[in-house]
Amino acid sequence: MISQREKMDIKLAKNDKRYIQSTDDVYSIMQRVLLRKNKIDQEKEHFWIIGMNQCGYILYIELIALGTYKAVNIEPMNVFRVAVMKNASRVIIVHNHPSGSLTPSEDDKDTTDRLIQVARILNIELTDHLIITPRSYISFRTIRLMEELEQSLKYVPPYQVVERIRKEEKKIAKEQLAVEKSKTKTARQKAKEIKEKADSEKKALINVLLEKGVSIEDIAKILGITPIAVERLINKTE
Q1: Distance of CA 217 to CAs 165, 204, 222, 232, 237, Å?
Q2: DSSP state of 91
Q3: Tens digits of per-residue pLDDT, 92-138?
Q4: Above pLDDT 70, what percent of the chain?
Q5: 42: part of which helix (H) or strand (E)?
Q6: Beta-strand relationship, 125-132 and 58-66
Q7: What one-character DSSP code corresponds to residue 70?
Q8: What 8-state DSSP symbol labels residue 67?
Q9: Which of 14, 24, 49, 157 has a CA between 20 and 30 Å from the CA of residue 114?
Q10: Is pLDDT at 16 greater than 60 in this prediction?
């Protein structure tokens, strides 16, 4: 971790844009920040956060942590500490890869996954995660990795998983009711598709709950079905 003296706001240069309109704007600023570091520091991983208001105006840029040549460790609450104090409603996280590779590591994905959940709790929008080098960058949002991680249930508390199940159950019940009002062949096919979709989503959520240590009996109570029905869904092939 960086020292308190080193942990500070990054000052924007005279020609830097104050509004973020695209990932190119982010990289334009952060590339210059990275190149301002001495040669030794450039060979270490840095982790920055950019805080913005809802319109994209930059409120601050802060270096959260300085790591080694291949990793940087961060504490999720430290990432959002200044965001909360300065009322930033949107943030972008940025870190560099001294190796020059722009491929997100499993640790990069896992860190982003955790930060998405913390941001949701704080009602702050984690807009994107950029990996940068002196010559180029990659955006999690652009390559659709951000969308994938936003759907992840890995760090979602069990009670929130249950809430999602109940919400999805109500949605499916409403769709089925609408289908039942129609007697056409197309409607019957639609009903079949809805049931298959419901079973698939239930199976995915059952697996998540099982991984979190929830028993089959408790899952059955949550879903309002029998334990046998839960086991059938677990064993059902796609």
Answers
A1: 16, 17, 9, 13, 21
A2: E
A3: 999 999 999 999 999 999 999 999 999 998 999 999 999 999 999 99
A4: 87
A5: helix 39-42
A6: unpaired
A7: S
A8: -
A9: 24
A10: yes
Give the chain's largest Cα–Cα span.
72
At 185, list the tokens: 């062949």
Closest CA to 94 of 53, 33, 15: 33
Bridge partners, residue 93, by sequence: 49, 129
pTM of this prediction?
0.67
The span from the CA of 176 to the CA of 199, in Å, is 13
Count CB-CB contacts under 10 A for residue 222.
18
> Which residue bears the tokens 């677990």?
234
Phi, psi of 215 (to 5 degrees): -75, 160
Contacts of the segment 227-231: beta carbons below 8 A, 24+ positions apart: 230/206
**How long is the chain?**
238
Q: Provide the pLDDT confidence category of residue 144 given band limits of 50, 70 and 90.
A: very high
CA pair distance 217, 226, nearest whole angstrom? 8
Rounded distance between C-alpha atoms, residue 94 and residue 1, angstroms: 16
pLDDT above 90 coverage of the chain, percent: 39
Residue 179 neighbours by CB distance under 10 Å: 20
Cβ-based neighbours of 76, under 8 Å, separated by 6 or more: 114, 115, 118
Instruction: Tell me the β-bridge partners of 96.
Output: 132
Does residue 184 have a pLDDT over 70?
no
For the record, the structure tokens of 17 come out as: 């844009």
Residue with tokens 């951000």: 146
Joined together, the tokens standing for residue 163 give: 């809430």
